[in-house]
Every structure is written in structure tokens, then in C-alpha cells.
Specification:
50% of the residues lie in helices and 13% in strands. By secondary structure, the protein is an alpha+beta fold. It has two domains: 89 residues; 125 residues, endopeptidase fold (from Nostoc punctiforme). Strand 5 and strand 6 form a beta hairpin. Helix 2 packs antiparallel against helix 3 and helix 3 packs across helix 4. The longest helix is centred in the middle third of the chain and has 102 residues. It starts with 16 loop residues before the first helix and ends with a strand.
């Protein structure tokens, strides 16, 4: 056994902080009571005892916890307020950018619309001017054709009719096309040629019979009608009439055809000088062309 086994320890036991604080509170309360009793007066007087309660450690802890909680809540509210302010500022900045972008886009669209409107107005103006120019040109051409038709009617009324023979020489010569550039047709043939040439420049329209638009057989029929001769309406019917003639022995007024004689698909009028007048197609309208431009398949003489 150790030689110090029965020697008691002189070390005082440790006291906790809470016990020390509690004893301090109690001692403070007792001392306060004694001080008040001593100051009360003489010994004969009845002693007055007043107890002043000192705050305990428990109440201090509660108050401290409440203060900390309140401070934390205030800090949280302040942080939340700052976050909301930051979000509002960001939202305002974004809205400002979007508004600026929308305004720029609206300005761009408005400028494009103004440019498009100006372009459309310019095109409309140009179209009106073109239409007016075409109308004036058409009026002048119509006046020219009317004048030619009036002159044609006067010439036809004053001219002597042919003998009616299909082989009669209306131009005073039966020479070929090489010598017809100097021929001056007269009588019925002259009327047919003059009418056909007066329609040059008119439009081509399928089924057209005048006065300002024609198809090929409609023009031939009208030209012969101007000379008092009735012809069928269809091209193959017209080319089936009269007498076949050689392309080297043509006379003004002869009917040229393309295709077979009984199945022609196009007709025109020979006007002399190696040329013909015909309503060709919608692209060219009524034109006067050389035989070399589109050589015909054959010809018939109806005079």
C-alpha cells in the first residue's frame, strides 16, 4: 500500500460556473437585506426587511437569446430587402434594354414600310405613265388605221372591179415575187392588201376577229370581207378554196398557208415584194414579214 494512502487530499473540489453564479446572486441578495435593515433606524423600531431580487443567470440567458434571435431576424429582413432591391434593379435594367431593343426594331420596321410604300408608289406611277403612253400610242395607231381604212374605202369605191377570173392579173403582171417589189396592186387585191397592212401592230388573240385584235384566219377573213368577198372562218377551210399557185408565182392578195392545204394550221396574206402580213402569235401580234422569215408550205389564189 502507498504511504500516502490515508492522507486526505487538501485540494478543494472544483465548483461549476453555474453554482458560483448562483451563490453570488444569493449572497448579493442577503447583503442587500442587511444593509437596508441597518439603515432603518434605532433598535426600538420595528425592523423593515426588503428583498431585492437580482437577475439570475437563467433570465440573462433568455434575454440574450431573444436579443440574438431579434438581431438575426433583423439581419435576415435586411438581407431579404437588399435581395429584393437588387432583383428590382436587375428587372428594371432588363426592361429598359428590352424597351430600347423594341423601339429600334419598331423604327427599323417603320423605315422599311416607308421605303416599301415609296417603291410601290414609284412603280404605280411608272405603270400609270406606261399605260398612258400605250394608250396614246394606241390612239395614234387607231387613228392611223381609221385613216387608212377610210382611204381604202374611197379607193375601193372608185376602182373598177376585176373580171372575176381567178387567173386575172390584178397588178398588171404575172411575174414572180422577185419582180413584185415594184408592182402596184389595184382593185380587189389592193383593197385586201391595204386592209391587211392597216392592221399591222394589232394584238394577236385566239379567236380574235377585230377590230384591234386578231387570229390568223380572222385577219384573212376580214381583209377579204373589206373587198366584198366572203371566206370561211377556219384556216384549213380558207386554204382549201381557190386554186393552188406556186410560191414562185405569187400575186398580192394570195392566201399563204402552213401545213397541208386541207389541214393548214396557219394562214396569211401575200402583199407583194416577197412579204406577207399575218397575225402570227401573242408575242408578235400582226406583223409584216419576209417569206424567208417563216417560209409557207403553199398558196392559193381566190381572186
Amino acid at each position: 500500500m502507498s504511504h500516502t494512502a490515508h492522507i486526505p487530499s487538501h485540494r478543494k473540489p472544483r465548483r461549476s460556473a453555474s453554482k458560483l453564479a448562483l451563490r453570488a446572486g444569493v449572497a448579493g441578495g442577503v447583503l442587500s437585506t442587511i444593509a437596508v435593515a441597518g439603515a432603518a433606524g434605532p433598535a426600538s423600531a420595528e425592523p423593515v426587511t426588503e428583498t431585492i431580487e437580482m437577475p439570475t443567470l437563467g433570465s440573462l440567458g433568455t434575454d440574450l437569446s431573444s436579443a440574438v434571435a431579434a438581431s438575426a431576424e433583423a439581419s435576415q429582413q435586411e438581407a431579404l430587402g437588399q435581395s429584393l432591391e437588387a432583383q428590382e434593379a436587375a428587372a428594371l435594367q432588363t426592361a429598359a434594354k428590352e424597351a430600347k431593343k423594341a423601339k429600334a426594331e419598331a423604327d427599323r420596321k417603320a423605315e422599311a414600310e416607308r421605303a416599301e410604300k415609296a417603291r410601290q408608289e414609284a412603280e404605280a406611277k411608272a405603270e400609270r405613265e406606261r399605260a398612258e403612253a400605250e394608250a396614246r400610242a394606241e390612239a395614234q395607231a387607231r387613228a392611223s388605221r381609221d385613216s387608212a381604212r377610210t382611204q381604202l374605202s374611197t379607193t375601193s369605191a372608185s376602182s373598177q372591179p376585176d373580171s372575176g377570173s381567178g387567173s386575172s392579173n390584178d397588178s398588171g403582171s404575172s411575174a414572180g415575187s422577185s419582180s413584185e417589189s415594184t408592182q402596184v396592186s389595184s382593185g380587189t387585191a389592193a383593197s385586201i392588201v391595204a386592209f391587211a397592212r392597216a392592221q399591222v401592230g394589232d394584238a394577236y388573240v385566239t379567236g380574235g376577229t377585230g377590230p384591234n385584235s386578231w387570229d390568223c384566219s380572222g385577219l384573212v377573213q376580214a381583209a377579204y370581207a373589206a373587198a366584198g368577198i366572203d371566206l370561211p372562218r377556219i384556216s384549213y377551210q380558207q386554204s382549201s378554196m381557190g386554186t393552188s399557185v406556186s410560191l414562185s408565182n405569187l400575186q398580192p392578195g394570195d392566201v399563204l398557208y402552213w401545213g397541208s392545204r386541207s389541214g393548214s394550221y396557219h394562214v396569211a396574206i401575200y402583199v407583194g415584194g416577197g412579204k406577207y402580213v399575218g397575225a402570227q402569235n401573242s408575242s408578235t401580234g400582226v406583223v409584216e414579214r419576209s417569206l424567208d422569215w417563216d417560209p409557207p408550205s403553199g398558196a392559193v389564189r381566190l381572186l
